[in-house]
Amino acid sequence: MSTGEAPGRVALITGANRGLGRAVAAELHARGVQIIVTARKESDATAAAAEIGPDVRAHELDVTDAASVEAAAAALGDVDIVVSNAGALFDRGDDPLQVPIDLVERTLAVNVLGAWRVGQAFLPGMVSRGWGRLVFVSSGTGSFHHGLFTGSPAYSLSKAALNGVTCLLAQAVADSGVLVNAVNPGITKTRMMPHAQRDPAEAAVGIANVATLADDGPTGAFLRGGDGARIDW
Fold first, then answer.
1. Crossing angle, helix 66-76 and helix 115-129, to 10 degrees?
2. What mean pLDDT do residues 20-27 have?
3. What domains appear along the chain, each with residue ranges and CATH number?
4. What average pLDDT does the segment 1-28 reach?
5. pLDDT digit string, tens, across residues 172-183
6. Cross-referenced Pfam families, in alphabetical order (predicted)?
7. Which of 86, 66, 183, 64 shows the shortest CA–CA distance to 133?
8. Segments in 53-114 forming alpha helices (H)
9. Which of 44, 90, 205, 230 would staple 39 via disulfide (CB 3.0–4.6 Å)?
10. Region 201-214: what's the mean pLDDT?
């Protein structure tokens, strides 16, 4: 996977107050990217930003709230890179026959509609400037090729749908200088996956690579965070 030069670019990361999102923010910051940490609570975003560096900005952004997303887009100016990391898992251990549909709705609201909303808010500016990168943090559980995961059906379905959003948005901005991709970071130790062994800082490297793809990089692809290889949908 070929990455380009990104110093001076501005990157916004959703759900960046902890875990994988915070690690991605720190990794991109180390590469010279100007960082905007966002979280549902401004205080959480501010605390995380201060830990990463004194030059890191913070802003409140709730992906499930249209007004919150619109306000952030209006206030933050030009954003070149968006890493859509905010996600939720409510149905671990459920199965498709018994999972409460309200949990499915809540999951889709964050993982699909929230991510799509963020894309709609920030992609037009990227297109108008002729350069941009939108990265959706997806999951191997959303790959039809490998089989959706019945142990967390709402989450699995949401990531499959997110991969679909990736394809749609990539087609909508084709040949504009903007690349839209989904990335599977692999099983990583976060609040969602507390028993995983992989450190978020390690997984963040692959996501940051996709966020800084060279201009001839792929778009509309599902990429493996470790090496950038394509994953079958």
1. 30
2. 97
3. 10-224 (3.40.50.720)
4. 89
5. 999 999 999 999
6. adh_short (PF00106)
7. 183
8. 66-76, 101-108
9. 44
10. 95
> Which residues partner with 191 through β-bridges?
none
Nearest partner of 57 among 80, 34, 40, 73, judged by Cα: 34
153, 142 Cβ separation under 8 angstroms: no
Residue of 155, 158, 200, 228 with catalytic role: 155
Query: Measured between alpha carbons, how far is 179 from 56 in angstroms, rounded to an integer?
Result: 24
pLDDT value, residue 199 = 80
Q: Quick check: 110 and 63 in contact, CB under 8 A?
A: yes
Tallying the residues shown for the chain, one arrives at: 233
How many CA atoms does the CB half-sphere of 26 hold within 13 Å? 16
What per-residue confidence (pLDDT) applies to 192? 64
Other CB atoms within a 10 A radius of the CB of residue 50 amount to 12
Dig out the tokens for 25 from the structure. Answer: 């923010």
Alpha-carbon distance 171 to 13, whole Å?
22
What is the distance between the alpha carbons of residues 218 and 230, in angstroms, rounded to a whole number?
9
In the chain, the amino acid numbered 193 is: M
Task: Return d(Cα 138, Cα 153) in angstroms, integer.
Answer: 14
- Assess whether 155 carries a catalytic annotation: yes
CA-to-CA distance for 146 and 124, rounded, in angstroms? Answer: 33
For residue range 138-169, list pLDDT tens digits in order.
999 999 998 999 999 999 999 999 999 999 99
Quote the strand ranges of the chain, DSSP E.
Answer: 10-13, 34-39, 57-60, 81-84, 132-137, 178-184, 222-224
CB 36 within 8 A of CB 58: yes
